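Reading a protein record of the kind used here takes little practice once its layout is understood. Each number in the token line that follows is a code from a learned vocabulary of backbone shapes. One such record is shown here in full, so that the layout can be seen directly:
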Amino acid sequence: MEHFTIATVAEESPDFRRVLWTGQHLQLVIMTIPPGSEIGEEVHPDHDQILTFVSGVGEATVAGEKKKIEQGDLVVVPAGTRHNFVNVGPNPLVLYTVYGPPEHPPGTRHRTKAEADSAEHADR
């Protein structure tokens, strides 16, 4: 059995992105977005995504609609939907996200957004 105290695990991770678990149909990923930074506008053509925010404050943009996000909020991003999440607060924006199907190779760990962007460009 895989078991996580997810809020604690996410809060303790300094990594921009870290894959915690990958199954056949789903993937669990934790992220830490530094103040003033963002995930970056993107579209996952074949992946649904659910993001749950553990701490910090940010702004979600999904399909052109903007909304403030904070601890306890959950945002659903259907496959094919343009989206971005920006940290607008003074502290890290910490979240966990579930992709269906998996988006990243199992065990992926990107310490910074620059490292994540570099890895994505290398995969193209």
Q: What stands out?
A: Strands lie at 17-22, 27-33, 48-55, 57-62, 65-70, 74-77, 83-87, 93-100, 109-110.
